[in-house]
Amino acid sequence: MYKVVFIDTEVSTESNTVLDYGAVVDKSTHIHTRSASVFEDFLVQHSSGSKRFLCGHNIVHHDAKYIRQQMQAAVITDLIDTLYLSPLLFPDKPYHALLKDDKLVTDSLNNPRNDAIKAMELFYDEVNAFHSLSELQKDIYVNLLGRKEEFCGFFSYLNYYPRGDISSLIKRFYYGKLCGNSDIVSIAARYPVELAYVLAMISAKDATSMIPGWVHMQYPAVSNVIRLLCNTACADGCPYCSSRLDINRRLKQIFGYDDFRKYDGENLQEKAVQAAVDNQSLLAVFPTGGGKSITFQLPALMAGELSRALTVVISPLQSLMKDQVDNLERRGIVDAVTINGLLSPIERADAIERVENGLASILYIAPESLRSRTTERLLMRRTIARFVIDEAHCFSAWGQDFRVDYLYIGDFIRELQEKKQLPQPIPVSCFTATAKQKVISDIKEYFKEKLDLDLMLYTSGAGRKNLRYEVLYKESDEEKYTTLRWLIEQKNCPTIVYVSRTKRTAELAQKLCDDGISALAFNGKMDKAEKQANQDAFISDAAQVMVATSAFGMGVDKPNIKLVIHYDISDSLENYVQEAGRAGRDQNLQAECYVLFHDGDLDKHFMLLNQTKLSISEIQQVWKAIKDLTRNRSVVQRTALEIARQAGWDETVADIETRVRTAVQALENAGYIKRGKNVPHIYATSILVKNMTEASLKIEASHKMSERERMNARRIMSMLISARSIADAQNDDAESRVDYIADRLGIERQETFKLIQILREENILANTKDLTAYILKTDTENKSLNVLKKYDAMEQFLVGQLEDGGQCINLKELNESAVSSGLKNATVNAFKTVLYYWTIKKYIKKSIENTTARTVIVPELSAGALWEQRQQCIQLAEFIVKYLFGKSREKPHSGEQELVEFSILELKTEYLRQEKSDITDKAVEDALLYLSKIDAMKLEGGFLVLYSGMQITRLELDNKIRYKADDYKSLNEYYKQKMQQIHIVGEFANMMVRNYDEALQFVNEYFQMDYKLFIAKYFKGNRKDEINRNITPEKYHQLFAELSSVQREIIDNDTSKYIVVAAGPGSGKTKVLVHKLASLMLLEDVKHEQLLMVTFSRAAATEFRRRLYDLIGNAAGFIEIKTFHSYCFDLIGRMGNLEDAGTVVQEASRMIQNGDVEIGRITKTVLVIDEAQDMDENEYRLICALMERNDDLRVIAVGDDDQNIYEFRGSSSCYFEAFLAQDNAKKYELLDNYRSAGNIVAFANQFVRHISHRMKSAPINAVKDGAAGAVELVQCASRNLEEPVAARAASVRDRGSVCILTNTNDEALRVVGLLKKKGIRAKLIQSNDGFDLYNMIELRFFMKKIMKRLETPIIPDELWEEARDRMTMVYKDSSNLALCLAVLEAFALANRRKYRSDLEVFLHESGIEDFFRNDNCDVVVSTMHKSKGREFDEVIMMLDHVSSDMDERKRLLYVGMTRARKDLYIYYNNKDFDRFITGSVRARVDSTLYDRPGEILMQLSHKDVHLGFFKDKKNTIQRIPCGAKLLTSPSGLLAVQDGKAMQVVRFSKKFLEEINRYKRQGYVMESASVRYVVGWTDTSDGQEYPIILPDVYFVSRV
After folding, report:
1. Residues 791-842: pLDDT tens digits?
2. Is the CB of residue 1535 less than 8 Å from the CB of residue 1520?
3. Closest CA to 1375 of 1407, 1334, 1416
4. Bond preceding residue 94 cis, omega within 30 of 0
């Protein structure tokens, strides 16, 4: 025997020099030294003879290059490497005890002598193992490896040299174990090492033994050699191929089937299986129940057995993965595992271990899992037989379920092949149940482009001969249910009922159960256990009927289903064929498939498509969010939810995280970003102990761990020490990464993180600063601390508001209360943040009503206990902020954000030093999480171990670059296809009703014809346009049939960023806006939460919503339609009130610009402005702030500059017109007047021409049919015009509605008084200046009745009606009852769900004029200002010395005259209108000198009454109904109660002066009545009192 010296070195990766040497000759002769000369002397001393051997583990390609000098000195002739010999000589499980993958198992670090000893032990075991081989095997290995530097030293030591013919040697020894006709000679010549390792694996007795991962990495051709020897059938059919690769024989052996399934007599399944076994890539289109699973499972199991290869199955459905694994286990096949988010840590670790150890041949994963480093590492260690992609239509934008995350699959496979350095591509199998020709070509082109693979196609027809289809047209839901129940009772067999909404599954199942039919529900949102239980019950026939969404049936093996009923039709023919195909899986069984159809069913699918579609604007919002996040750095890690918040998305939107990931993938596909693997950057690095013994002693001595935690800590340290990948722990493959440790050991990530912190504290691991934070600061101010103090105060306030049993919170009310209590910086957004944090910390349970802003919270702790915990957290957070701020000041100031590095142990140590008390890791984590959530600092890196963050690298650094329509092309194509598919399935249903055979031909041609030819055949002429609309033809006709060409252009314009509509009077402005809103939602893909409409009156908002309900149904309730003031009160988090109305718009604009508003409230894609000409500077600034916040905001501004009549309050048409100066602006003019008769329009045109600057370029056109109408100008000689105007009103009352328009309120009151004197019923359009509707006694009574019995935030309909009826009875004599009922009716119409707080806001923000009605056809009297937006048959304008010399006055007059529908009369007493007398205008002169009115009405306000007088009159006043007569006295008004007159109103000093003024004019007070009884709050005592605001009539005594 020759003498061998065994060595190991410890090398510095930084300096590439040896730090430590170890050498061993035998157990008694060894050294451990840092001296190169000592090491050299040892080698020289112990190397002798003609052959001098040096042995080590990985010595050839590692140690040797660092010890060349010492080797030369010792005249070493041969190197023996135990690393390369190990897989050859220990191919069987369990592998050699001293080996783990490519490393020696060790329990110590930095001890090369110990490792040299282990190398010696391993070497002699390898010698013994070689001697135990047969002579043939020895000869084979020597012939293949004898000249390779990694092996030649070993054979030299044994004196073995090549002999014999290698091909004959191998074929003799491995007869029947590999293909007898394989080209051994060429393989041996080209891949000798790879061939040796493969032969060793074939020799292994354990069928799951594998070639180690490091061999695959170093010799990537191993996979190719395995394929050539074991997995490629020869043409001649050798014994091996005839038995092991015969798919028919293996089908029987593995699954027990005698034959493959045939499709219309064709052996497609068999052909596809053979193609897979032959290592071909393929695309198989097999129908539901067509044996798709076996088609890939059989080749996968064969590859696992013959070549120890892994087949990776990528599927989008986690539940389907589990079903497939379970189904195989029921057959006794345990070779399949799934790794997905539904697994516990232990289940996940077990699945990973089974894959690593070769026990699994099939791995099921979701596309998202390809982003995991653990998954990548796992696949790097195995031979991959093929990738199987289920639901392959997801690759195509033309498929029924395009998924952007599928597009990453090709990139992942390519990167994996490159890292493995594979000489041959990994084959791919794609499967789908239904696919039209374009989808097939898309899939094939994708893999050709990405991987240069040509997919062989195996496709069956879409039809099933054992299924009978029938469509039954049903008008109503009641008809549907009756038919459903009848079908189930008649057929009496296992039945699936498909519905389109998850909620309906439970409702329908319960209804069937109530009718005696055994039915269960199934949908994707149900609890996992309940879903499984219901599925098992149905499969075992314990339940007859399964009512389900499309989520049910995939992978469910129940052959005796004879009836499938679509209660709601599917959204595509593909899905319908799949779902219907779940009947009759037993092809010998005749089954029936029914659709209960109504055209309206398609509208639901269109609406759902619009709600779920990811629009280009939303991707642009995510891109903007990423640009904002990467402003200071190019790489960030954020969760999907964090990105959604940054983008301003509504968190209540369904599947919001999936939508964000899809947007991120779309941005990656466009080249704007690169999404990395999901990696938490925390590492257990820098091991401080020398060996596992020392680590165990320290762990045992620690008092910071429980016994179970000690056990897991030992497991972690054992893994770290044995891995020895500590020289460069930050590389991507580091085994010290927390996520990998957690996955591999089956420990929760949170616990792993905690244990690593403890191991650092115990000096077992080094204290690595793996946390980084961005501190908010200036040179002198700790801004992070200011943020913390703000939230501290808000939390303290919020704790005080908590109710033990839970409560419903209106965040605006809460915020207003906080501001009133002194928290001036409180915002709704901040309160949302606090509640979110409390929820994730389980202090409270929180839920949000989707359709409103209501937040329901239920405390999990008492208020005292909660605040105690919060104080501790906030105090610790304050310490952290101050400490990190101090660290940041050590750096030169570089902006408002400063990056600081630290660790949890550092914070704990410093806290103990400063505060003299200890804190836990958990407390520090909680404080850091809190600081992160309130944006006091931005935490990066390791902190994200607690969350599943996406690593995003920004590639496009130009902030001006935007996501473009061209980038969106594939997604847009997909959504277009989805839309067309709904039309197509609707056409199929209608065709099935008409002609069964034609409908079946329609289906077959859909799947077989070129798609464009199919569309051309079945959707000709106008129908080609119909199929490209996200709406049914019936709904489209309802929306757009009656629009003019210009109105239609406005509706159809979906490209202009700014649409400015100059709308003339009576031109259908409201109709256009309502239809445009409907179009935005139904046709232009605008989500309701990203659509905002602002108006100037609550009446307009209510009217828009009412009309929208009529047009699009309940979807109208989700659109945000608000007044400017209401929207701004929402933004600043305050309840609407009169006091702040003047400044609220300005305040909201300021908060938007300062970033103090919740992003989600101002993130919009479309903004619609009604009456845009009425904007003032503050309102325009608000719009500009929204435009600045939303790069892609589309603005639709509608108004009439000729009707801008509020210049006195700052409004100006210049703001309306300013939109035209923006890029991509389009102006429209609505010039057709549908309201007024021709002569009125002509007169108004003539008048309006004299306004100096106008936006409209052409006159208004009268399009109303009927009489031309009268325009009469009456020039009066009298100063007093009330008498002739009243006379005219009396004369035209029988012609329809009549309105008298005045210039001032006083004039209007005089006219009302005169009409009353003449016995003519009159109604004044008035406002509620000085109070809001909430304070009216009738409505306050209603609210009290509601509050008395209200138990939930929502007012039940029964309680609403009861309170309304009670109010009606109690206030039956009130003159305001009709008004109050109109207010409540308007609220009920606009709010299908009646929230108490919404009602309060509505009452606070509404005005009396918003609810004006004239049901009794009284003569209406109004100022011209208050008449805007109204119309009347007969309009009489009273113009007492009203000049038209100014544009502002001209516009007001224009508004007045355009209120008229039939006739217009203008009474004036100057010469201003003489110039407008034309042939079509009647003109006359009235020379009568009329007396001034004999009666004047005065409407008293708060300023006219002595408010303090009411304080002790509460009971008296509450008994007086509005409209009641009052007696007059010099100082006030009296009411008669119980036969006694008592004073109920005292006049103010101001009004007493007014009385004296009237006296001097000859008027005396004659009578009075109660106009309003309202609540008034005395600021001196904070108490509320009822007061009377009366009407007082003065009569002339002259």
Report:
1. 999 999 999 888 877 787 878 788 888 988 888 888 888 888 888 888 878 8
2. yes
3. 1416
4. yes
d(CA 873, CA 778) in angstroms, rounded, equals: 25
Amino acid identity, position 767 = N
d(CA 1209, CA 1202): 17
| CB-based contact 1071:635 (threshold 8 Å) | no
Whether the predicted pLDDT of 1180 surpasses 90: yes
Per the structure block, which two tokens stand in for 1255?
Answer: 């936006």
Identify which of 221, 180, 176 has the alpha carbon closest to the alpha carbon of residue 202.
Answer: 176
Q: What is the mean pLDDT of residues 1211-1237?
A: 94
Which ranges constitute the DSSP H helices of 636-781? 640-647, 656-669, 692-701, 707-723, 738-745, 749-761
- According to DSSP, the residues that pair with 1198 across neighbouring strands are 1061
Name the residue among 1521, 1541, 1539 with its Cα closest to residue 1529.
Answer: 1541
Range 839-868 burial, b when 16+ CB lie within 10 A, else e: eebebbebeeeeebbbbbbebebeeeebbe
Q: What is the dihedral of CA 342, 347, 348, 352, to 10 degrees?
A: -140
Confidence of residue 727 (pLDDT cuts 50, 70, 90): very low
- Predicted confidence (pLDDT) at residue 621 exceeds the cutoff of 80: yes
pLDDT tens per residue across span 1135-1159:
766 667 788 899 999 989 888 888 8
264 to 259, 461, 999, 1050: CA distances (angstroms): 15, 8, 20, 53
Among candidates 1057, 1072, 1452, which has minimal Cα distance to 1230? 1072
Amino acid letter, 1121: I
Q: How confident is the model at residue 1436 (pLDDT cuts 50, 70, 90)?
A: very high
- Residue range 882-893: average pLDDT? 78
pLDDT at 904 over 70: yes
Asked whether the beta carbons of 345 and 295 are under 8 A apart, the reply is no
Question: How many Cβ atoms are within 10 Å of 149's Cβ, its own excluded?
Answer: 14
Rounded to whole angstroms, the Cα distance separating 1556 from 1353 reads 52
* 963-994 as b/e: b if 16+ CB within 10 A: beeebbebbbbbbebbbbbbbbbbbbbebbee
Q: Is it the case that residue 290 has pLDDT exceeding 80? A: no
- Residue 349: pLDDT above 80? no
Per-residue model confidence as pLDDT tens digits over 645-657? 888 887 667 778 8
Higher pLDDT, 1402 or 878: 878
Rounded to 5 degrees, φ, ψ at 680 are: -75, 125
What type of residue sits at position 470? Answer: E
Q: Output the pTM of the full model.
A: 0.75
Q: What is the mean pLDDT of residues 1258-1273?
A: 91
Question: How many Å apart are CA 420 and CA 412, to the nearest integer?
Answer: 12
Query: Virtual CA dihedral for 408, 409, 413, 416, nearest 10 degrees?
Result: 50
Alpha-carbon span 776 to 885, nearest angstrom:
8
Sheet holding 1194-1199, edge to edge: 1120-1123, 1091-1095, 1166-1169, 1194-1199, 1058-1063, 1225-1230
Q: Which helix (H) or strand (E) holds 616?
A: helix 616-629
* Contact present, 507 and 549 (Cβ < 8 Å): no
Note the pLDDT of residue 774: 75
**Residue listed under structure tokens 């394929």:** 227
**Average pLDDT value for residue range 724-729:** 35
Rounded Cα distance between 407 and 361, Å, is 25
- DSSP characters for 897-938? EEEEEE-HHHHHHHHHHHHSS---HHHHHHHHHHHHHTTSEE
Pair 1129, 1149: CB distance under 8 Å: no
Give the Cα separation of 1436 and 1465 in Å (integer). 5
C-alpha span between 1130 and 810 (Å, rounded): 11
The per-residue b/e assignment along 1043-1071, b for 16 or more CB within 10 angstroms, e otherwise, is: bbebbeebbebeebebbbbbbbbbbbbbb
